[in-house]
């Protein structure tokens, strides 16, 4: 084997090394030679010493090795002095490996890792090898003998040297220090391997090294406590890679260097001092009880065993079966739930229960099948290794269970010491109220004065004690008194605030500020605070009280946020359904501004106050927080559950202050309810409408009834001025100006009302409101013009001469209202600035004289005095319109729907409100009827239909209460029981011809009469007192109760 | 506890109310604005008893509103810790009951109700002693002691106890 060639191989075909053992051997020789040159003399001699010892071992393992040895010997021979040194160097590489690691490892490995083919082979071979060695040994010895002198010298050298060095090592500390790894030493590399195969991998590496000593690794280490990794000692990462190549179970993709500093730690044994004392809480690590909380009852340090108290998980039935030898089903999947042992129950199942006295403690235990029970708990002796003592966070539930069979609070304190081990740093701060929980000073209260590491100086509250006491932190616990306002700073309720309701040992019961629920927390987890929060209010992108869409397309409102999940009140109106939802289960937040209709077809939008009129939450009332898919989420402050949220169908609700069903005869009777809050005139305008056409057409109109601050809260766009193009939310309406909170900027600006368009928002149920603001403006007048041509034929149509006579009183009322109106306007004191915005609408009307002087431009009615009141009174005077009263006639329904049509002729109408011109005009007419019918609409002695949860019954109003509700005697004859009914729950019985009636509104309010005829929506009434015949709106007529 | 104190407030008045009745309007608006409100410092303003003086009005640019500094005397109600109050029960649930003493809402937790009183659910949830002699339900009047207060900008919320001598039901509507 020419050496020259070998060297070439080494350089050019490094890969071959692994696959060609013979060649490899040679190469190792070469390398060793090179290496040796680098080594210091002393070290090499050491190695050599070892190597000679190893020679034998290496030979044992492999024939090849022996051959190699022979070769080596030959080299040594031939090469003379240098060669012998070379030779001595060669062995160390194998020696290093084996004497440090392999010897030990292989022993273990052989026993444990059976089944690993490579290894077993070797193991199996070993005995033979043993024989083989003896066979081979002689020749070696012979060879050695050839150079007896040399050997002699070497042995002498070896022993002499070793003696010396050993002595050295043992004596000096500095040398010990010098053993620590330095930059010059091989490094430790961490290599990933298959879990559970650590030892196997290490053994394989060893084997590989033995097979091919040209590997440049020095050791392989598998640690018992480190899964998934082994350590390999080598000079370079490439060497490790090389070594790992071709091995299974080892993943050499990522090789990490262990910093020099940490290298010693890898192999240092960490003695874990487990301190287990009685009464500490532990968790089981294995078995059926894995993860269960247990309490240490007794500790046997000598035998490393502890007695723990557990809540048994025993399937009595299975146990009984087993004892009786019946079908012993080994069903592993099922773990019985923890349950206290009931001895009587066990006896019933014919399980033998022995009552024994424990000789050590003197306590009595019930023994079943070698299991000991006491008070329902299982007492179990386990190895210390099978319990974990670190980071035990018993939850309240668990602790609660352990307290079950009437344990006194003593135990709690002891257990707290376990809890305290997990305290954060800086737990106590100066000024904290604390109580001592252990030792002689137990139950002494005080305030923290100073905090040092582990020691807290407290000022005791008791007299005759030193000013400050130094107490170990672990003996202290925070102390609170009922009534303290606190914030929870750790634990599951982290972030919540509330007031302490009760102090129970070291457990506080606090009343959460937001949920008004009781929370149980450890005194240690809270701090005194004046802050008010509901705890965590955010989870991911979602906030408390957000409406969210969930995974399964259901939706709900977040009513509680916990650390990793939140509670969601689902949108199921039938019953309150709360789901615990993880963040990832939330799809998105629903932030739509929708509006829906309530049971009377009123529009409900967010923030409207509604009352639930049917269903399980009937009677609840509150502002609407969210609307989605016809479901409302109402926030009722008085509702304790679900953070005050109620989920209802929109149809089961009624807008408070909203108008009654739009088609109802006394449809606006309810909107009058509103007058309590709004300037009385506005709601009246819709009164005209029920007279007329199909009610549904006027949904929009009636809504105006409660539009006192209709614009407020809506989203508008500014059309003119400096803020042109901005969008914003109206925060306030003041006269002719509107304060708008800009969406894009954090500010509120005041703009002219005319400069906004509010049709950007879908939510504006008050779309007609701006009209009021513009009321006095001219555009309205021209807009009226097209109306008239349309109306005129109508008037021609259904005119009846009889009406002429009837006109006068109407007209009177039409004009008079201005007197009654003025006080009404004073109702600005309402306190609602928003309502002021609406008031200008009266201005156009109030100076009627002015409109008289200014004939409507472009109007065909040259002589028609000011558009507004023309219909009311004037037409009668103008000759051509003798039949002017027709708007009050049955024909009107035809006319009414046309009103919106007329708008199409008004391209220039400001704001583009479709309704504006037509309805506006009609609004102006409203005073014809209105103004003086303030006050209760219902009157005593009239017949009403009471709608109560779906059923209708007739009743007689006996008394009208101040709040608008009535006391009604049920039964048409007034014979039933008397109940109090809200105005919205009843409607006036429509009188028929020849019925006795009572007039509920107008100047004749309160008068009785007889309905002698019905003409559309007008009734012809013969008033009892005066015997006059009047034409009155049917809406203000009610059937008189027969008494 | 009730106090009679003098407070000051800047009132803004719409120009349309200027005239002979300006003062009346101002006072009316003041009452409307102030009565029934709550401030953390003073508690609930129960009633305005008089006007000390009305300062000079200042016209605000832009709006035309005029602001008047008004000093007024008023009766305020502020609950204190340790105070004993009489209150009307408004709601009873398993966690305790809510009672109102005028504008103040007080919660009495079941932990602060004597232990011999048990919660009875049903149509009319209540707390009853084991012998049934004492019953706390909606509209009962109770005497309680405030043990903690929480003052918000607009609300004062209290926690009370009836677990003490001479506390508890003083007038039961059921027995009347």
How are the strands of the largest sheet of chain A arranged?
A: 8-9-10-11-7-6-5-12
Greatest interface by residues involved: A-B, 25 and 27 residues
CATH architecture of the largest domain in chain B: Beta Barrel
Average the pLDDT over all residues of chain A and give the rounded result: 65
Strand-residue proportion of chain A: 15-25%
Task: Write down the secondary-structure element order of chain B.
Answer: EHEEEEEEEEEEEEE
Given helix and strand content, the structural type of chain A is alpha+beta
Whole-number radius of gyration of chain A? 49 Å
CATH class of the largest domain in chain B: Mainly Beta
The number of strands of chain A is: 51
| Integer tally of domains of chain B | 2
What integer value in Å does the Rg of chain B equal? 22 Å
Distance between the termini of chain B: 28 Å
Structural commentary:
Chain A is α+β, with helices and mostly antiparallel strands. Chain A has 8 domains: 39-178, no CATH class; 185-265, 2-Layer Sandwich (Alpha-Beta Plaits), CATH 3.30.70; 281-392, no CATH class; 428-479, SH3 type barrels (Roll); 538-655, no CATH class; 711-764, SH3 type barrels (Roll), CATH 2.30.30.30; 778-928, no CATH class; 943-1039, SH3 type barrels (Roll). Helix content of chain A is 31%, strand content 25%. Chain A has 30 helices and 51 strands. In chain A, the strands form 11 sheets. An 8-stranded antiparallel sheet of chain A has the order 8-9-10-11-7-6-5-12, with no helix packed on it. In chain A, strands 16-15-14-13-17 form a 5-stranded antiparallel sheet, with no helix packed on it. In chain A, a hairpin with a 7-residue loop joins strand 27 and strand 28. Chain A starts with a helix and ends with a strand. Chain B has 1 helix and 14 strands. With 176 residues, chain B is mainly β. Chain B has one helix spanning 22-34; strands at 2-13, 38-39, 43-54, 58-59, 66-77, 84-93, 96-101, 104-109, 117-120, 126-129, 135-136, 141-151, 156-161, 168-171. In chain B, 7% of the residues lie in helices and 53% in strands. Chain B folds into 2 domains: 2-77, Dna Ligase, domain 1 (2-Layer Sandwich), CATH 3.30.1490; 84-171, OB fold (Dihydrolipoamide Acetyltransferase, E2P), CATH 2.40.50.140. Chain A: It is found in: Nucleus. Chain A: Belongs to the SPT5 family. Chain A: One of its GO terms (molecular function) is mRNA binding. Chain A: Residues 7-38, 56-74, 98-120 have a biased composition (Acidic residues).
